Amino acid sequence: MSERQSRAAILCVGDELTEGRTLDRHGKFLSELLTELGATVDRISLVPDELDAYRREFLDLFPRVGTVIITGGLGPTSDDLTREAVAEAAQVELEFHEDIWEWLLNRFPHRKISDTNRKQALIPAGFEVIPNEAGTAPGFVGEVDGCTVVALPGPPRELQTMVDRHLRSILGARFGVREEEISWATTFMVPESELEEALQRHGAESLRWGTNTEGYRILLRLRGGDEPARQAFFTRLRGDLGAERIVEGRAEIGEVVLNDLRRTGRRLVCAESCTGGLVAKLVTDVPGSSEGFWGGFVAYSNTAKIGLLGVSEQTLADTGAVSPETAGEMALGALERSGGEAGIAVAITGIAGPEGGTEEKPVGTVWLAVALDGRVLETRHVFLPRDRDRVRRWSAISALLLVREALSEVA
Amino acid sequence: MSERQSRAAILCVGDELTEGRTLDRHGKFLSELLTELGATVDRISLVPDELDAYRREFLDLFPRVGTVIITGGLGPTSDDLTREAVAEAAQVELEFHEDIWEWLLNRFPHRKISDTNRKQALIPAGFEVIPNEAGTAPGFVGEVDGCTVVALPGPPRELQTMVDRHLRSILGARFGVREEEISWATTFMVPESELEEALQRHGAESLRWGTNTEGYRILLRLRGGDEPARQAFFTRLRGDLGAERIVEGRAEIGEVVLNDLRRTGRRLVCAESCTGGLVAKLVTDVPGSSEGFWGGFVAYSNTAKIGLLGVSEQTLADTGAVSPETAGEMALGALERSGGEAGIAVAITGIAGPEGGTEEKPVGTVWLAVALDGRVLETRHVFLPRDRDRVRRWSAISALLLVREALSEVA
């Protein structure tokens, strides 16, 4: 592949982007995809809905990059100009696709498709249609002066569906990468440097990896080797990092914990202080979570810890609200108050800041406890000296990882 | 101001952006600022850390726009190239600023400033330094071929602090807008079309407005007129939209509710089903929230509603979990179980989907209840036919707005 062919660019079109009304996420999503396929992204441009803006970008990009992905500008209104701009650059006409129009008319039986939508059946001559199963505007792909030009609609759900169902394989073929050659894993609360060392330690000649850090979560993609080789690699990583901190596939922590709960037939109850409902929120983000989640307490104040969870006043007076003793009593109290309905309880108490820290217990000090079968299985100290938002988020994740550990022991 | 002078562009530099590892938020933040000042943003470009990328951008932008803001590339390492690229374009040398170096050495008494950091004291000759109170790399501003060039560091907290403390007034002066000419308001759960109509109805000749929609929240900025005229306008809007749905300034819902709670001397307890902890999370996002927040229950399953909140089995059997009766009993139960500690309770029960909807109670059906002084003050039905995430988010916000309403009645 020539250097030009390996270069790519992304063009995101819309006044809402350049006026700062909408945060663009397509640039990141598509550049990640292109990078994963081995392309080098030369520029991501956000430009207004103006024909001149397209012309300027095309003039610069088409001669020097091999792939341009355009997002937006495929709606039915007069300021949607992607079709016109691409047809002009390719020096072709726009063709009306009767089959797209028929499909549009039948797509939403209860929604009126107006004549202005006819525009969405126009495709530059010689371009291939990319179906849009999630919306009304199909995309298209074709060549202009030796550059592959892809046009996708702006609404995120439509774009993502089209990428997953069609574009990945179109571009994969172009860059010589097959989808089955890539495996994914997700780590939780593994520092980047620790993961990098583990990868170095267990990696093999034939394997290449890339990581994508999103706060407490790292997505790890693995290419090369064959499926068994990648599996063996994951097994070694799991042994190194601890099974609760790494799972195969692209996963959310809520899903992963719910799977463990379902597998072990236990329902979770949580007792939260500093996380203030975040643990419950992360688990109930997942549809159908009632199967593995029973309920929770947000015992933010000391009187709530006493009243809601039966933490003893003595314990609070002797050891403070942020202590292994209080965390343990919170977990046990939550378990008891579920009346046998919940099979495992987790408790979190800590100092999220910015106020409330002391020399002895600085901001970021957190105690976790997990209880099951009528007793406290473990209490754990974690120290997360960060801002309020991260102390809360990271201690919530740490609590869920403790649940995973506990469940693996009873399974 | 000439057309060129009113045009602006933003250049965000970093391999992490074009490789899809980091989501860029600076483009949105800065284009919003520029738009607010009356500039037209012509392009937001995300490019890798390569001198050629800067050259290409500068060649295109400097002759046709009046302002370019660059973010990133001001770190101490060899791939941080903003200083070099700007100096090259301006055909000036980089000057070592002894005072910046002194400041850097004294800035972090406990942190070693290495010799590589000396680079951060280099500024293109003739450019003005923009101080960085939140980090190590100062920014700079100057002219290249009649174009104002601003360079800011990439770390979000540093950039935002510098914009708030320095860049707003630098650019404000440039675009002839003074900060005191702008007022802000925030609306919650007001549909865009309803707000637009209210703005049209109450607007005056001298006032111009812009809106920025972020899900359930719209930031409204108002320019022109004088302070009393803008105040009078807000008063009219408040009368129209309802005082609980609009507040002055740029505000988060958690803060706003906590202010009401503090003002009325009542602490909140919440009883959540479908929102699964989100209401508690939104309130406890705010530092110092224990002053106004007592605690909460996540009663996700029916047995949790019975066990935790004392909802009667009969009510659940007769009216279902999603009903005004269940919501009312949840709120009352939460209030009672706080043992007089909480002065107001809110309950949320609904069908967040995607499963669980029926013909009679489709996905998006939500019942809210608010209780105080030992009785249910109000139950309210809201219907939010959206995806799971939005049903949960919007019903949490609706619940907090109901709390605001209730507090305004007892105040």
How does this model look, in words?
The structure is a homodimer of 411-residue chains. Chain A starts with a helix and ends with a helix. The first copy, chain A, contains 15 helices and 17 strands. The model of chain A has no long low-confidence stretch (mean pLDDT 91). Chain A folds into 3 domains: 173 residues, Molybdenum Cofactor Biosythetic Enzyme, Chain A (3-Layer(aba) Sandwich), CATH 3.40.980; 70 residues, 2-Layer Sandwich (Alpha-Beta Plaits); 158 residues, Maf protein, CATH 3.90.950. In chain A, strand 13, helix 11 and strand 14 form a beta-alpha-beta unit. In chain A, the strands form 4 sheets. The first copy, chain A, has a 6-stranded mixed beta sheet, with helices on both faces. Chain A has a 5-stranded mixed beta sheet with strand order 14-13-15-16-17, sandwiched between helices. The radius of gyration of chain A is 26 Å and the shape is elongated. By secondary structure, chain A is an alpha/beta fold. At the A-B interface, helix 3, strand 2, helix 4, helix 11 and strand 14 of A face helix 3, strand 2, helix 4, helix 11 and strand 14 of B.
